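Lecture notes, unit on protein representations.

Consider one protein chain, 427 amino acids long.
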Amino acid sequence: MSGILTILFLILMFLGMPVAFAIGISFMIFYLFGPMPAMISVQKIVSSTQSFPLLAVPLFVFAGHLMNHSGITERLIKLSTALTGWIRGGLAHVTIILSALMGGVSGSAVADAAMEARVLGPSMLARGYTKGYACAVIAVGSLITATIPPSIGLILYGFLGNISIGRLFVGGLVPGVLMTIVLMVTAYIIARKRGYKAELTKIPSGKEIALCMWECKWALLFPIFLIVGIRYGIFTPSEAGAFAVAYAVIIGMFVYRQLTLEKLLESLRYSVRDIGMIMLIIMFSSLIGYVITLEGVPQAAASFLAGVTNNKVVLMFLLITFIILLGTLLESTVIVLLLTPILVPIILRAGIDPVHFGLIMMTCVTLGSMTPPVGVAMFTVCGILKCELDEYTREALPFLAAVIALIIVMILFPEIVLFLPNLVFGV
């Protein structure tokens, strides 16, 4: 029945219905005419908002807006521009580098995408970038947040799978850097083809870059405070969102002195609007998760794939393909919570390193947020910049292909992911 409901959802989307209501209407039919009481649907919608880890999303969205008005993001943009603005298609590279820097600040790809769409999106459009290209760079670039610590998804995966979060954090550094490079190369190729210009006319001197880094010291120190706080149990990942809000307020009001009461209220207003849009999709997406779980699709598919082959590489490709497909339908947190207890025993029996698998899994799970039909980051960016989904999908294909190529390389060469954790923590 889930297949029929998915087709109905796609038809409603094709007719132009807002995604949240297309999800809600199509999958509400299961509860009205299926084996479950209709009241269950209301309970699932409400219960999906009662997740403590999910609390990090609105908090980090609010923190992102505060950083926009407190001067933190402004200085990070200045540093990103100094580092990459001289490359052809400079503002796209600035966006990607900012995602890498913000990965250590927000911990949420959706929050990062929403912030950049608000701050950099209008500038990209003003400089002649198409809406689809601007949305694609921002949305797919936010994927870096899934690997750069402190990723919320990695924390959940480590907790549920009883895997060292420290190894996951350290292991995410190299894939995060590689993803930044891969996306920048893709953006450069497109920029050359379309004639997009550089943001700067010359390469900044070392002194200018050092000065920008000094101005960004509080923003650059923040991820360190965050990792230390989580690592030593000072606060949980969700409480880290509250820490991010408090940090942004203190730095904005008392250090940079740019965050006024008026700007604080404006941050609240933007946050409520963005959080409302994001949470409405997540709430109705919980209906899909329950239908798929009730029919046993993830468990049956995972067990089937595990019985297909004993080859570690082939099994990794099968599991990752399954995760990518599932990521197009379910919110990433739901997938991590649902599949981690199922898949970790399977990969351990197959002799696959759980840190290696976890980092690739989180990349693929988060990739679903950037792809149709139920990509939360995709809908967030397209909603803010008022971009049609078909235009976004067309422009995002080169970036998605580049990411998938990197994932294939990481599967084939596990040492890319594992050499740094093994170096720091030992084999």
